[in-house]
Amino acid sequence: MSTAHVLLGLLAGGPRHGYDLKRAHDERLPQAKPLAYGQVYSTLGRLERDGFVAQSGQEQEGGPERTSYSLTALGRERLDAWLTEVEPPAPHVTSALFSKVVVALLAADADRARQYLTAQRAAHMTRMRELTVAKSSPGTTVGDVIAADYAIGHLDADLRWLQTTLARVADLQKEVTA
Amino acid sequence: MSAPLLTATGVHKNYGNTQALRGVDFAIEAGEIVAVTGPSGCGKSTLLHCLAGLLSVDAGEIRYRDQDIGLFSEAARSRLRRSDFGVLFQFGQLVPELTAAENVALPLLLSGSGRKGAREAALGWLDRFGVADLADKRPGAVSGGQQQRVAVARAMVTEPKVVFADEPTGALDQLNGEQVLGAMVRVAREQGTAVVLVTHEATIAAYADREISLRDGAVDPTGLGVAP
Question: Contact at 8 Å (CB) between A157 and A87?
């Protein structure tokens, strides 16, 4: 995910200053890593240099002076293009899970790989239960539920993979050790 | 820790020459929600039917509140199922000629409750599952998700100690399934009802406090459900 595009999106509703953008980012995307102020200002600097945002005023309300930024026509075009582009359906083939299975076969044997797969499944199920409890708790926002659904969906995909991989460990061992 | 509410010890069940269960041990505490998972044909539905007293076991025993239900007469088992157990299947369990309220009231009427009290209780339970406005509709006139909410209300109307749910969301799309199950788990926790939840979906099993997995009629400690 690109922070620059998220900032462009947050500016689509009207001018905002850096502090306000950070706060809106962290509130709307609570599962993402909170933005550092430095990152907000350096990103705004780059967006301004490229003509996607422009300074639109100074604000001072009892605190330090703050520069507000607004989206330019070019910035709006860029944002629209980003929202239109699909993300590459990531194959995730470089997953640490897959690497561990192969390394377990190289360094030890099929039983070691099966032990790892079993332990990994238990850890995935525990996390899935935690997320399910969290999203079913009273007072949970729709945003929290959707974020949890995303994580649960990915864990579920991993679990299916763990299951089919266990069935293929013996064949993989022949291939890896051939 | 208190004694488990319901246990299975060394349970075997055969269908002709097919061994459906081969020495399964299982225990559930009062108020606990346990998922029974595993691939198709692993024996999980058979285990649920044995636990609920719907099938008798060929060897081993099922104990409810420390009583061997295999020693009960059919009439006593039937009474137990009406008073202490609730069952919920994938679909097709509502009587099509009866309204939602009549379907939910049915277990109470069979247990000897009066008509008025049974209807009032049924309306209360429909309300807890968010379908009170469908009370006078027949199953055919409501959606699959709504039918399943009515079925959950019917399984819980007698305030059972254990609900046996066999793939209860299997016929629903993901969002509807999740809403039905979320409501069932919430109410079960409020009531302190234990739930045995049979499912092959990890996302559904994640609603439970813990899971046991079966493979080829036996407990599978790997939980991966496939032969290594």
Answer: no
The answer to whether B208 contacts chain A (CB < 8 Å) is yes
| B81: phi then psi, degrees, rounded to nearest 5 | -65, -35
Handedness of CA B119, B123, B129, B132 (dihedral sign): positive
Q: How far is A124 from chain B (nearest CA, A)?
A: 10
Measured between alpha carbons, how far is A61 from B166 in angstroms, rounded to an integer? 62
Q: At what angle do helices B115-128 and B100-110 cross, to 10 degrees?
A: 130
Out of A129, A156, A166, name the one closest to residue B224 (CB).
A166
Q: Which residue of B has its CA nearest to A153?
A: B203
Residues 6+ apart with CB under 8 A from B135: B99, B100, B101, B122, B123, B126
Cβ-contact B62, B7 below 8 angstroms: yes
Pure H helices in B52-194: 74-83, 100-110, 115-128, 144-156, 174-191
Domain ranges, ordered by start, for chain B? 6-219
CA-nearest of A133, A129, A137 to A155 is: A129
Contact B34, B195 (CB under 8 A): yes
What 3 state SS string does A8-63 have? Answer: HHHHCCCCEEHHHHHHHHHHHCCCCCCCCHHHHHHHHHHHHHCCCEEEEEEECCCC
pLDDT number for residue A33:
82
CATH superfamily of domain region B6-219: P-loop containing nucleotide triphosphate hydrolases (3.40.50.300)
Is the pTM here over 0.90, yes or no? Answer: no
Contact between A41 and A31 under an 8 Å Cβ cutoff? The reply is no
Residue B159 zone, left/alpha/beta (φ > 0; ψ -120 to 50; rest): left
ipTM of the complex: 0.81
Mean pLDDT of A140-158: 92
Give mean pLDDT, residues A127-141.
Answer: 91
Query: For residue A157, how far is the Cα from the chain centroid?
Result: 16
